[in-house]
Design brief:
The protein is an all-alpha fold. The chain has eleven helices and four strands. Strands 1-2 form a two-stranded antiparallel ribbon. A two-stranded parallel sheet has the order 3-4. This is Outer membrane efflux protein.
Length: about 375
């Protein structure tokens, strides 16, 4: 089925039409916001890593609901801090108006509600910009989550490939155990152990397949497909090894400060604050945010270096195993190696080949996490 991202009636009303099946698709932006080529890429039945941000922005239900909420707040004139404060003062006035003197219990509740609303008006720091920043942060986190899911999906595919290759070896070893048993060279216990390994491997494969499918479904739903759609998922881009020497947490720190959503939100709240205690609290929070951002950036950078070292080690081990495989190939052709031993060497070679691909994805993820930190998502939680 072609991928036409469908959202609920609660989503934005912009309708994009296209040639093909008699269907309509809703997107978060008007048609003029993107070129026909850009829309074509987002509406095809192909999932590409570099399209994740666009797909989240246009078709993710949470992002679209947040945009609707922003639009509603504009309509309700909840734009500035004073307008939000007035909203609370109006609520306080309504609560005081409900005090009639006829019911002491009800009057007491109304008085408490009025006092609470007055306090909210005094300490309020909200405005439309804070909501916009908060929703932008939500969208950025959703993009990051989609990136992680797509990388995880391919990691699961590599692990599945590894298990399938290992299954071949386990089947060969089980058959070898049966053959030895028939000649009295292996016990029943040895056969049962080989059989159990084979059974456990098949169970692990089934479990991993189910997990990979769950990952795929989550990714599809996040990006606007239905859970049971089958888009073509393209490979993750190759990791750029040269980038390791181009990133530096010390020089990237200022950019991380400027872009950090939590920091920008708290700074905006400080601008809006009127109560002294609120101002002092926000100043302390901002100082803590900056320290934590710096710490997070260094931690993410160290993760890049560790992933790079692991990737290079995997390549080294693969190169060594490639030489061993060449030797085994020659021995096998000369009948100097048994089929089972050759199968074991082939298995070791393939395990290392897959390990290189898996380590490359881990390094790619580390780079992406660092980039996301610089671009606004560095943790401020300490």
């Amino acid at each position: 089925m072609r991928k036409w991202k469908l959202i609920g009636a609660c989503c934005l009303v912009t309708v994009l039409t296209f040639s093909g099946p008699a269907m309509k698709v809703r997107a978060g932006s008007p048609e003029f916001a993107r070129t026909p080529e850009e829309w074509g890429k987002l509406r095809d039945n192909v999932m590409e890593y570099d399209e994740l941000a666009g797909l989240i922005h246009e078709y993710n239900v949470t992002v679209q609901k947040n945009q609707l909420d922003i639009n509603d707040k504009k309509k309700d004139d909840l734009v500035t801090r004073d307008q939000y404060a007035q909203y609370y003062r109006d609520a306080a006035s309504d609560a005081r108006s409900a005090i009639s003197g006829d019911d002491p219990v009800s009057d007491a509740k109304s008085a408490v509600s009025a006092a609470k609303a007055d306090k909210e008006a005094d300490v309020n720091t909200e405005d439309l910009e804070i909501y916009r920043l908060t929703y932008d942060q939500t969208e950025a986190n959703l993009i990051s989550r989609a990136q992680t899911l797509m990388i995880s999906y391919f990691q699961q595919q590599y692990e599945l490939e590894r298990l399938m290759i290992n299954l071949e070896l386990l089947e060969a070893e089980y058959q070898a155990a049966l053959a030895k048993q028939s000649t009295g060279m292996a016990t029943q216990v040895a056969v049962l152990m080989a059989q159990e390994c084979l059974h456990n491997s098949r169970g692990a494969i089934d479990k991993l397949r189910a997990s990979a499918e769950e990952t795929r479904q989550k990714l599809c739903v996040m990006l606007g497909w239905k859970y049971n759609d089958i888009p073509e998922i393209m490979d993750i881009p190759a990791v750029d090894m040269e980038r390791t020497g181009l990133i530096n947490p010390e020089t990237d720190k200022e950019m991380a400060f400027q872009n950090n959503y939590t920091l920008k939100i708290n700074k905006r709240k400080l601008e809006n604050a009127s109560a002294d205690i609120t101002k002092e609290t926000l100043k302390r929070t901002i100082s803590s945010d900056e320290q934590n951002i710096n710490t997070a950036l260094v931690k993410d950078y160290q993760a890049v270096l560790q992933a790079k070292a692991a990737y290079e080690q995997a390549i080294g081990e693969y190169n060594l195993e490639s030489k061993n495989m060449d030797t085994a190939q020659q021995k096998y052709q000369l009948r100097m190696m048994s089929p089972l031993d050759y199968q074991r060497q082939k298995n070791a070679y393939n395990m290392n080949r897959i390990a290189v691909k898996s380590a490359g994805l881990t390094l790619f993820q580390a780079f992406q996490t660092y980039d996301n930190a610089v671009n606004g998502l560095a943790s401020t939680g300490g």
